[in-house]
Amino acid sequence: MTPTPPKSAEPTTDARSGRRVANVLWNIIGGLFVWLLIMAAYQGGWSTTSSAFIGVMLLVSFGGMLVGMGSRFLHRPMEVVAGVMMLAAPAWTYFAGTYRSWPQALWDVLGIAVGALAALLVERGWQAHRARRVPSPVVTEGRLRDELRPIGYLIAAWVGITVVTLLRPSLLPSDPQRFAVIDVSRSIAAGEAQAFTGLRVGMALSGGGYRAAVFHSGTLHALERLGVRVNHLSTVSGGSIIGSYYAIGGDPVAFKDAVAEGRFNLKRELLLAHNAVRLPFPIRVPGIGVRLFPWYEYSRRDVQAGMLDRLLLDGRAHSAAPVPQAPNLIVNATDLTFGLIVGFLPDGILVQGPDGDVGVYRGARYQPDASFSLAERVSISGAFPLAFPSTGLGARVEPFGASGRGKRPLQLVDGGVADNSGRETLLNANAVACDSAPCSDSTHTDTRFVSDVMLVSDGGAIFGVNGEYVGIAQLSRAVDVGGARNGLSVGRSKSTPTVQFSAQEAYLNPGMQFRLYQDPDSVNPSDASKQWFVRFDPRDGYPDAVLTAITDLLPDSTYPKVRTALTAYRSARSSVGVQDERRWGYWLPRMATDGNCDAERASGPNATELQGLAGICEAAELRRAFTAELRVLLEAFRATSTLEDQLGRVRTEQLFRLGQLLVYRDWPRMRDASQQAQCIRTSRAECPKIR
Question: Which residues, listed in sequence order, are joined to residue 385 by a DSSP beta bridge?
Fold first, then answer.
């Protein structure tokens, strides 16, 4: 028998495919090496070439190690990749958080179906095309193509989700004419609201993420019901989101509902195809900082701006009020170069340095090298360090002949870094307003930014709460502390009465807590961090309509009892005159805490004392119900992180209701502030102070 000659050692199909893949990888790495050297020389000169060379060599070594490991341990690597990719669909919905909102989940399912159907049609069309070109029954499908098919379908589903998201009607309604119907004559407390007639109301909306934004939407909604129209807004971070939408005629309730539905999902936006493929640009090389594509940059801040534009602002520019009744808007940021508070005006900037010096740059005095849309300004105002990059802005300011021909290199981040309340810019705009209207002086703000009364909606973080802060949460807390230095203390300006709606002021003072921990005999230390102080006395001068508005916001479980108590309180109070303030102030908190006022008044040791205070037990019931609900809402506020955007329906409603309740509760202070402002305008020597 003739021996069979040995077969030549021809490489298998898998081996040939592996070599082709390896060749492609090495070509890519070689091209990257050349490109990196070119970009290093372009951006930093040849001095950075050596570091770029070292970085690329490390990258090549690491890539070679991965290729070697893959060749040794993964005989069929594409099957592993395909298997991993099959898990991408449920992983996508988890990381995007869409499973928390069933409407959003349904839209994603629709997007997946559209993408998969499109991929199926493309595949069938390609197969038909191949069949026409190769009529003979030749097997052309290989294992590699079969393994890549699920990857192709998943990419198509990913693109389908993106397309459906962009085509879905999502813009919230806005109507600038809606401010014309906000008037003291339509207030639920029309008689007392007349004190706001002719007053210019400035309002600061603090930072604090979507927690603050929803809280502010509640305060704005309550102010509208009270007939108080805001003339201008100074906003920071989360306050800029609702403030910008409100300034163009947005409805606070519509904003609240959108947050409850999970529409403001930044993580999901980052995962959409048109954003994810651009986010790596300009692609910085770790360790050496060289940008591979220096002419194009796309960041998380751009994604945030795009989302706000699509949902709220619809490409609008930051301009003067479109109608006379709409509020004027100042969007605040912090400059890291000079330590400035930067307030974006419609036609310039208002700045305050660390030394308190204030400057206005408008018209020819301010020549920026970039213009920002309203959505971009809002995204800059909320560009929290590390979570978002800073934004560079070169601005030429007078004198132009100074160093660098007057150009100042600003690096803008979250406005809460310098002042989380937004109050400083309100005060500055007031202080540097010109006397004429309209104002043509580029060194002053217009008279439309003058405030007779200032309101501060403070949605900043609660202080004095135990917690462990790690990573970005630690930085977030540091910014909360630094930005709150101005916002927590609201001064009583003689020229501008100020009222602040704040969850922070209801909490046990952090300094007091610190001292209490040093004196365990004065209070249980474990209780000190859970203590809320709620100020509410029905006899503080609330009109009936405001008391009704307060009770209407209390939970259904206590509503019948509270309504009965309110009716009885009104009846008792209408039958007597003014009673002893000192005795009332002594017994009200005790009876509200005790909960047995009716029994005490009927036969207790202090029955005579209580019977002499008409309505005391009914007022105690109102206070007890209000205090219990407010503490629930304050706990929801405390438990919500500044960086959280998926709040859920229950928490969103709680934060909105908290803002409403604090405004209604502080109506007597607002009324006093308006009366004081009217007094100041008439130039009387003595004016009443806010209680």
Answer: 388
Q: CA 195: distance to chain centroid? A: 33
Q: In whole angstroms, give the CA distance from residue 426 to residue 421.
A: 10
Rg (CA), the chain: 32
CB 224 within 8 A of CB 175: no
Of 228, 233, 679, 691, nearest in space to 494 by CA: 679
Residues contacting 116, CB < 8 A, separation 6+:
153, 156, 157, 160
Q: What sections of 45-142 are H helices per DSSP?
A: 49-73, 77-86, 88-96, 102-133
Calpha distance 454→206 (Å, rounded): 13
* Integer Cα distance of 566 and 309 in angstroms: 45
Residue 609, phi then psi, degrees to nearest 5: -60, -45
CA distance 578 to 438: 49
pLDDT at 82: 54
What single letter denotes the amino acid at residue 106?
L
Q: What are phi and psi of 409, to 5 degrees?
A: -85, 100
Question: H-helix or E-strand containing 408?
Answer: strand 407-414
* β-bridge partners, 362: 348
Identify whether 399 is preceded by a cis peptide bond (ω within 30 of 0). yes
Report H helices in 386-533.
Answer: 423-431, 472-487, 510-518, 525-528
State the DSSP H helix or E strand holding residue 498, giving kind and residue range, or none if neither: strand 498-502
The answer, yes or no, to whether the previous bond of 282 is cis (omega within 30 of 0) is: yes
Q: How far apart are CA 335 and CA 385, in angstroms?
A: 12
- CB proximity list for 341: less than 8 A, separation 6 or greater: 332, 334, 335, 351, 352, 415, 418, 419, 424, 425, 428
CA distance 349 to 345: 5
Q: CA 561 from chain center: how many Å?
A: 37
DSSP character for 48? G
The low-confidence residues of the chain, meaning pLDDT below 70, are 1-27, 29-30, 32-33, 36-37, 41-92, 94, 133-151, 286-289, 321-322, 399-406, 437-438, 464-468, 470-472, 482-494, 506-531, 576-579, 684-685, 690-691
Q: Give the burial class of 313: count Cβ atoms within 10 A of its Cβ; 0-12 exposed, 13-18 middle, 19 or more buried.
A: buried
